[in-house]
Amino acid sequence: MQEFVNLTLGGVITGSVYAAFALALVLIWRSTRIVNFAQGAMAALTTFIAIALIDAGQSYWVGLVVALLSGLVIGAVVERVVIRPVEGGPELNAVIVTLGLFIAIQALISVLFGVNQRAFVPPFSNIGFRIGDTTLGSLSPNTVYTLIAVLLVMVALIALFRFTRLGLAMRASAFGQEVARLLGVRVGRMLTLGWALAAVVGSLAGMLIAAETAFVAPTFMDSLIVFGFVAAVLGGLDSPIGAVVGGLVLGVALSYVRGYLGDTLVGLAALVILVVVLLVRPGGLFSTTQTRRA
After folding, report:
1. Membrane-spanning regions, if any (predicted)?
2. CATH number of the domain that residue 32 is part of
3. pLDDT band at 136 (very low <50, low <70, confident <90, very high)
C-alpha cells in the first residue's frame, strides 16, 4: 500500500512538471496557433542564465526573476526575427523553423555554458514529509512549491483568456488576423506578446524541472518536451485546465508503469496514450466542438 501511495504522489509531482511545460505549449497555441517545439530549448537557456547568477552568489529568487525576464525578451525576439517571416504561410514551415531553432539554441547553450551536467540547488528541501512512522518520499516542501506554482499559472492563464480584453485580442489574432485587424487589434503586437508570455511560462517550467531533478545539462529538457506535448494533447491544446489535468494523468500513469513494469516501458506507454487520445478524442479531454472546428 505504501508503494502505491508513493507511486501516486510521485506521479502527481512529475505530472505537475509535465503540466507546467504543457501550459507553455497551450499558451502559445491559443495565442498564435503554432506548436513551438523549441520551447524546451528556450526554457533550458533561461535556466542556465539563472544558474550563472546563482553560481555568482545571487539567490534562487533573483535567478528566477531574471530567468522569467530573459524568457520574455527571448520569446519576443524569436517571434519578431525568426517566426514572423513564416507566419501566414504553410503551417509546416513554422514547425520546421521551431525544430531548427531547438537545435540551434541547444548548441548555443553548449557553447556558452559547456556540455557537462551542473548541480541545481532547489529553493526548498526535497526531503519528504513524515506522517507518523511513514515518510512520503515523493512529497516534500519543494514539490509543494512546484504544485502551487503550476496551479497559479493555470489560474492566471484562464483569467487572461476568459476575463480580459487582452486575452480576447490575442485569441482573435490567432484565429483570424484580417478580421482582428478590421476590429482595431494590433495583430503583430499580439503575436509577439503571445510568444513572450509563453516563453515566460516555459522559463518557469524549466526552473521547476531543474529544482526537481537537481541537475541540468543542455539537453535536460528533451524528455520533458515529449511528455509535456503528450500532456497538452491529452488535455487539449486550447485548455489550460486540460494541460494541468493531462499532465497529472500522464504523470500518474507513467509512474505506475515505471513502478510496476519498469523504466523501459515508460516511453512506449506515453506513445500508446498519445495514439489512443488522437484516435478517440483528437481535440483532447477538455476540447469542445467549437475548438475542433477552429
Report:
1. 6-27, 34-54, 60-82, 94-115, 144-163, 190-209, 215-234, 241-259, 265-286
2. 1.10.3470
3. low
